[in-house]
Amino acid sequence: MAKLNDQARDEVLKLLARGQSQRAVAEWVKRHYGVSISQPAIAKIAKSARTVRADVAKVVIRDKVAGALTGDLDVLEQQVRRLKRLTGKAFKHALKYPRESQSFLNISRELRETIEQRIKRSGADEPDEPLLGLVDWLGQALNASRTEEESDP
Q1: How far apart are alpha carbons 36 and 2 in whole angstroms?
Q2: What single string gives the DSSP state of each residue in 118-132?
Q3: Which long-range contacts does 10-13 make (Cβ < 8 Å, 24+ apart)?
Q4: Does the residue 63 lie in any domain?
Q5: pLDDT tens digits, residue range 19-57?
Q6: How far is residue 50 from each of residues 2, 58, 69, 120, measured CA to CA in Å?
Q7: More confident call, 100 vs 92
Q8: Among 5, 57, 110, 148, which is most buried by a count of CB atoms within 10 Å?
Q9: Radius of gyration of the chain (CA)
């Protein structure tokens, strides 16, 4: 199988984007470039383009989010304070009027979801990779030593 030049690869991606099947694109490449290419090779071209595009999109999104993250966290902090005040009022109201306790439950759920969102956006819910590797290694070492102790007569 011959390699496609950049222009041919671009054309392949355009045809796929228009909804052409991999078989139709392979036939088109054969007609226009005189190159035999398999359907899996067409799929590989599409996948590599998606991977590159996804990597670029991730960088762009990270940069955009990083710039807005501090402001978003400040807004979420204000919302948490507001919801805490409302939760207290709604709880007192729910005690006095049990049938209307749904508003308390809704406010409590919103507070919990806001806190979870704040934690997620801050990245605090993500493990630290180097530490995680160390913890895994220590766990394996401790388990191995326990197994050895248990097997000793």
Answers
A1: 7
A2: HHHHHTTTSPPHHHH
A3: 12/42, 12/45, 12/46, 13/45, 13/46, 13/49
A4: yes
A5: 989 899 999 999 998 889 888 888 888 888 888 888 787
A6: 22, 12, 27, 27
A7: 92
A8: 110
A9: 28
Cα–Cα distance for residue pair 66/55, rounded to 1 Å: 16
Query: Could you give the number of structural domains in the chain?
Result: 1
Range of the domain at 65: 56-123
The one-letter amino acid at 52: V
pLDDT at residue 143 above 50?
yes
Mean pLDDT (the chain) is 76
Which token pair is 125?
A: 């819910």
CB 69 within 8 A of CB 33: no
Helix ranges restricted to H, 18-101 = 22-33, 39-96
For the four alpha carbons of 51, 56, 59 and 63, in that order, the dihedral sign comes to negative
Task: Tell me the whole-structure pTM to 2 decimals.
Answer: 0.40
Locus of tokens 């409590």 = 108
Do the domain assignments include residue 97? yes
Angle between helices 6-17 and 39-96 (to 10 degrees): 50
Q: How far apart are CA 64 and CA 72, in angstroms?
A: 12
Q: How confident is the model at residue 1 (pLDDT cuts 50, 70, 90)?
A: very low
Any domain includes 50 = no
